[in-house]
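$ ./design --mode recover --in tokens.txt
reading tokens...
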């Protein structure tokens, strides 16, 4: 399921960036690429430390990782917002990659269950 979500994030980001580049200016496309990259890196970090949360139960270490992850994300969002060459609307469009990917992963999982029965 994690691989499906990660591949969906990448596919959605590339598709949206190509569409925005063809239809509008490249500022929206660059913003969408950076938004999708931000979501991908955040999701990859969560997937990498998922076993620490549930298997090994290192609560203090996981809490420290989560705090620093969100501090870095807040700093990144602020720096993107202050840059003039990145369109914030395109960045928000790129951030929607996670929601799209979760929907795709759930649909794929539902069809996999139907094909197994």
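writing sequence...
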């Amino acid at each position: 399921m994690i691989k499906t979500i990660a591949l969906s994030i990448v596919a959605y980001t590339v598709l949206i960036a190509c569409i925005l580049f063809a239809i509008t200016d490249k500022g929206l496309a660059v913003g969408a690429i950076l938004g999708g990259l931000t979501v991908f890196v955040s999701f990859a970090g969560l997937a990498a430390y998922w076993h620490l949360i549930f298997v090994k139960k290192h609560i203090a270490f996981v809490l420290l990782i989560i705090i620093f992850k969100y501090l870095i994300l807040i700093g990144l969002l602020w720096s993107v917002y202050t840059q003039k060459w990145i369109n914030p609307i395109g960045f928000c469009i790129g951030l929607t990659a996670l929601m799209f990917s979760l929907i795709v992963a759930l649909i794929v999982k539902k069809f996999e269950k139907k094909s197994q029965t």
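exit 0
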